[in-house]
């Protein structure tokens, strides 16, 4: 009888609505893999001109097999990524979607996010085990797609905001960079942020540091391809022992929360910073209370924290801030490292930008 009573008290409409949500989640999970596939095989670029295509024509344009392309198009139309005209049997990529799916230099480009998040999902067996053991997982142990995907995920936001909004929000920094300054980009990864700054401020000198050697090698090639290798040096170094002194600006782009010893990293920044210098810390958007993270952005970043950011910090046996660390938690680590001034300088829907000084 107790079980029957429990069942009878269930709101059937609420249950059905939840089951509909679950089906949507299944579709999103599979669709994410097919978005990455479409990016990888050049389907979106092939449709970027907006011309309606059949599966045969898209297969011909991309050198792929029509039988596979056929269901890929159906999936993408069902997910709202492309349009389908039942009168002609043709599919079309809307120009607004092409900006996000086909233009790799667009500030709205999203395919890197799919690549990175699929790579994170592949870590699930290790992370499941870590829940029981408390162990971590180093960044470099993840699927190789995470490294390229992370660069492609963050780069559009840097293109859109770094030079136009974030640096100008820091007190006096833009003028120093234009005149010629010394900059350390800590946790630089593939060097996207370093290269964007070097392109914008040719009078300044830039030094990118990361403890992941393959990423540093890729960053060096990227700097050569961008034609800024004359003013950038990339080196393998950790956030606690990177070399140099008297930096005008030290940056941490979307990595401070990953560090095993964020206070120690802030300490190293304070040791190598010019007395009048600035530390810029760019972090994912997060609230100061749990309920402020119960939204789509909080969902993405808390998921990344479970699968990557927190495990990396724990692998180093350190303090795990996590991706949704509050402003107060970040400030605590920064101040513990000897940087007394700390403020949120600006923000976007996806980022918080902090300024710290001695």
Explain the overall architecture:
The chain is an alpha/beta fold and 358 residues long. The protein folds into 2 domains: 2-103, Winged helix-like DNA-binding domain superfamily/Winged helix DNA-binding domain (Arc Repressor Mutant, subunit A), CATH 1.10.10.10; 114-357, Rossmann fold, CATH 3.40.50.150. Helix content is 51%, strand content 15%. It has helices spanning 2-8, 12-40, 43-47, 55-62, 66-78, 95-101, 111-121, 124-133, 145-166, 173-179, 192-200, 213-226, 262-272, 296-315, 327-336; strands spanning 83-85, 90-92, 182-186, 205-210, 232-236, 247-253, 273-284, 341-347, 351-357. A 7-stranded mixed β-sheet has the order 5-4-3-6-7-9-8, with helices on both faces. A hairpin with a 4-residue loop joins strand 1 (83-85) and strand 2 (90-92). Helix 9 (145-166) runs parallel beside helix 11 (192-200). It is globular. It starts with a helix and ends with a strand. The mean pLDDT is 96.
- Strand proportion, as a percent range, falls in 15-25%
**Averaging pLDDT over every residue, what do you get?**
96
Q: Output the helix-strand order.
A: HHHHHEEHHHHHEHEHEEHEHHEE
Judging from the principal axes of the Cα atoms, what is the shape? globular
The third-level CATH topology of the largest domain is Rossmann fold
In whole angstroms, the N-to-C terminal distance is: 68 Å
Which radius of gyration do the C-alpha atoms yield? 23 Å
Briefly, what CATH class of the largest domain? Alpha Beta
Number of separate strands: 9
Q: Note the main sheet.
A: 7 strands, mixed
Q: What is the domain tally?
A: 2
Question: Please, what is the CATH homologous superfamily of the largest domain?
Answer: Vaccinia Virus protein VP39
């Amino acid at each position: 009888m107790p079980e029957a009573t429990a069942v009878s008290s269930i709101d059937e409409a609420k249950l059905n609505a939840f089951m509909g949500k679950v089906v949507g989640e299944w579709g999103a999970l599979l669709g994410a893999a097919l978005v990455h596939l479409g990016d990888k095989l050049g389907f979106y670029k092939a449709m970027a001109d907006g011309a309606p295509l059949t599966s045969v024509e898209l297969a011909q344009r991309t050198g792929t097999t029509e039988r596979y392309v056929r269901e890929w198009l159906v999936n993408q139309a069902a997910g709202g990524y492309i349009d389908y005209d039942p009168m002609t049997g043709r599919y079309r990529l809307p120009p607004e979607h092409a900006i996000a799916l086909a233009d790799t230099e667009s500030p709205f480009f999203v395919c890197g996010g799919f690549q990175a998040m699929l790579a994170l999902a592949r870590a699930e067996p290790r992370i499941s085990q870590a829940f029981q053991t408390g162990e971590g997982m180093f960044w470099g142990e993840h699927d190789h797609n995470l490294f390229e995907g992370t660069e492609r995920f963050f780069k559009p936001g840097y293109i859109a905001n770094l030079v136009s909004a974030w640096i100008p929000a820091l007190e006096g920094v833009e003028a120093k960079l234009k005149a010629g300054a010394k900059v350390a980009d800590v946790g630089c990864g593939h060097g996207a942020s370093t290269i964007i700054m070097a392109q914008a401020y040719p009078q300044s000198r830039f030094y990118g540091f990361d403890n992941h050697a393959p990423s540093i090698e890729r960053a060096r090639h990227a700097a050569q391809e961008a034609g800024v290798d004359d003013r950038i040096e990339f080196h393998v170094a950790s956030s606690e022992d990177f070399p140099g002194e008297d930096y005008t600006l030290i940056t941490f782009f979307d990595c401070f929360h990953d560090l095993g010893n964020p206070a120690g990293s802030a300490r190293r920044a304070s040791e190598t910073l010019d007395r009048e210098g600035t530390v810029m810390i760019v972090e994912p958007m997060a609230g100061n209370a749990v309920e402020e993270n119960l939204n789509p952005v909080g969902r993405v970043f808390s998921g990344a924290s479970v699968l990557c950011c927190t495990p990396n910090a724990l692998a180093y046996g350190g303090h795990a801030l996590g991706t949704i660390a509050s402003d107060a938690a970040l400030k605590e680590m920064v101040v513990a490292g000897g940087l007394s001034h700390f403020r949120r300088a600006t923000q976007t829907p996806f980022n918080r930008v902090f300024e710290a000084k001695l």
